Amino acid sequence: MKNKYKQLLSNTAILGIGTFSSKLLVFFMVRFYTACLTTDEYGIADIITQTANLLIPLLSLGIAEAVFRFALERDEDPARVFTTGIVTVLGGGAVCAALIPIFNSISFFGGWGVMIWAYTFFSCLHTVCVQFMRARGRMKQFAGYGILSTAVTILFNLIFLLGFDMGITGYILSVVLSDALVTLLLLFTESLWKYVRISALDRSKFAQLLRYSVPLIPTTVFWWVTNVADRYMVTWMIGSDANGLYAVAYKIPTLLILFSGIFIEAWQFSAVTEKGDREHAAFVENVFDSFQALMFIAGCLLTAFAKVAVSVMTTESYYGAWAFIPVLSAATIFSSLVTFMGSVYLVEKKSVLSFVTSMLGAVINIILNLLLIPTPLGVNGAAIATFASYFIVFIIRAINTKKYIRFNMHPLKLTVNTLLAAIQAYCMVMETPGWIFIQAAVILLILTINARPIAAGILQVLRRRAR
Q1: Which DSSP string corresponds to 195-243?
Q2: Which pLDDT score is estimated for 181?
Q3: pTM of the predicted model as reported, rounded to 2 decimal places
Q4: Rounded to the nearest 10 degrees, how much is the dihedral formed by the CA atoms of 160, 165, 169, 171?
Q5: pLDDT at residue 465 above 50?
Q6: 227 with 306: CB under 8 angstroms?
Q7: By the 8 A CB rule, do 261 and 142 touch?
Q8: Torsions phi, psi of 441, nearest 5?
Q9: SS percent in the chain: helix, strand, coil, step 5
Q10: pLDDT given for residue 467 in this prediction
Q11: Which of 175, 171, 309, 336 is nearest to 249 (CA)?
Q12: Gap between the Cα atoms of 13 and 16, Å rounded
């Protein structure tokens, strides 16, 4: 029998080598960025990049997700799928270019219209190419180009920020040029240009892909709201200096997003290709149990070392960012669990359900931000709002996805893990008496509770490998 666990582990390892090494480099560049940019500049740069991230699904009509999903189908013509994706992005880029004067007229963006457009357009092209390559099963190449893209970005960072002291412009331009150059390289070295054919354009295929991707546009926008709207509100209510600290604090839990993102990319491939297998429910249950165990362990360790991480990775003026990390770490745990549950919608092509649940999360996030940020909680109010929205969406998705696949999510274990993470975050932020000992006790309990599913998952892989 085909070893689905071995395949998942293999894909995760390949993606991990590429993604982890590249993202880890970016992670450690935080100290470089905080040395080159003031808290105010970092806050402005963060607003520019997050605005571009909002425009990405709008400009591309979410087509990258559709390209990945449909290119996985064995009976699909890859040229029709890829050509549709590229043409969609080119059309969206033309429309977005016409909006540059509007962006420049908005004082909030300070005349950054061209940079926002360039960041958005080249990111969309790059994403369509790499997602098509991933769907074609070229995992090693997918990972390799991830490393290359990061290396090129860092090279331009050194040139523009350190060499020419270009500040915010250099920070944004580094990403733009990296996406543009790597996209050109992909088209020719991977021969992706062969899949771009005018004759492959088909109105019915375009409509089919859009029926899948269009509901994902508001879905992506709503997740953007959940993740990023608080940055705008913090800037608006408190100031760009505070947002600079908050943006840096967000970088630390990026480690959790990095780990979970590597796995989810491999998991989505397995979830689709293993659909219909008679042991599919047991497969999902075992994988979810190990995944949530790893996320809670990693999240609690990250919270425990929040002060150390900020001290090592940033300059002294950013040290206060540590206070936002415990709650953001808890939020990131549930963000990852929400994404895992979303893989069920991906398999079933239920993009509308992704839209509805993400919309609810965004609404909850905005309401809580408006209520909590003006209180003494301040920036941590934004972090709490993010956690609450992800937690509620996870509960909803956990209940809803049972219509499509029933598996034991171990609710008692999830509840205990969540309570322990909440206690740890509270004691850390408030620095309650004996908080160091409480941290140690929580970590010990988390390890004890979650060691078994991780060990069982490893044994499952080894047992099947030995067959």
Answers
A1: G--GGG--HHHHHHHHHHHTTHHHHHHHHHHHHHHHHHHHHHHT-HHHH
A2: 92
A3: 0.67
A4: 60
A5: no
A6: no
A7: no
A8: -65, -40
A9: 85, 0, 15
A10: 47
A11: 309
A12: 5
In the DSSP assignment, the letter for residue 375 is: S
Q: What distance in Å separates the CA atoms of residue 15 and residue 30, rounded to the nearest whole number?
A: 23
Is 429 a residue whose pLDDT tops 90?
no
Place of tokens 């689905």: 4
Distances from the Cα of 259 to the Cα of 71, 144, 265, angstroms: 25, 17, 10
What letter would DSSP give residue 150?
H
Q: Which residue is associated with the tokens 């360039």?
A: 118
What radius of gyration do the chain's Cα atoms show? Answer: 22
What is d(CA 106, CA 104) in angstroms, rounded to the nearest whole number?
5
Cβ 149 vs Cβ 19: under 8 Å: no
Of the spans 99-113, 174-188, 314-328, which averages the highest pLDDT?
A: 174-188
Q: Looking at 206-215, 224-233, 404-413, 436-445, which range is the least confident one?
A: 224-233
Query: Could you give the CA distance from residue 284 to residue 293 in angstroms, rounded to a whole number?
Result: 14
CA–CA gap between residue 53 and residue 255 (Å, rounded): 19
CB atoms under 10 Å from CB of 451, counted, come to 12
Average pLDDT over residues 39-50: 77
Concatenated DSSP letters for 429-448?
Answer: HHT-TTHHHHHHHHHHHHHH
User: Other C-beta atoms within 10 Å of 266: how many?
Assistant: 23
Lookup result for tokens 């049972």: 402
- Alpha-carbon gap, residue 282 to 8, rounded angstroms: 14
37 CB-side CA count, 13 A: 31
The residue behind tokens 């598996």 is 407
Cα gap 339→352, rounded to integer Å: 15
- 3-state SS string for 373-434: CCCCCCHHHHHHHHHHHHHHHHHHHHHHHHHCCCCCCCHHHHHHHHHHHHHHHHHHHHCCCC
Distance CA 382, CA 368 (A): 8
**How many CB atoms are closer than 10 A to CB 138?**
15
Percent of the chain at pLDDT > 70 equals 84
Model confidence at 451, pLDDT cuts 50, 70, 90, reads confident
Is the per-residue pLDDT at 28 higher than 70?
Answer: no
Q: What does the alpha-carbon distance between residue 132 and residue 124 come to, in Å, rounded to a whole number?
A: 12
| CA proximity to 344, closest of 412, 410, 406, 286 | 406
Residue ranges of the domains in the chain?
A: 1-214, 219-467
Burial of 199 per CB tally in 10 Å (0-12, 13-18, 19+): exposed
Q: Which two tokens stand for residue 189?
A: 């070295």
Terminal alpha carbon distance of the chain: 9
- How far apart are alpha carbons 45 and 327 in whole angstroms? 23
pLDDT of residue 1: 39
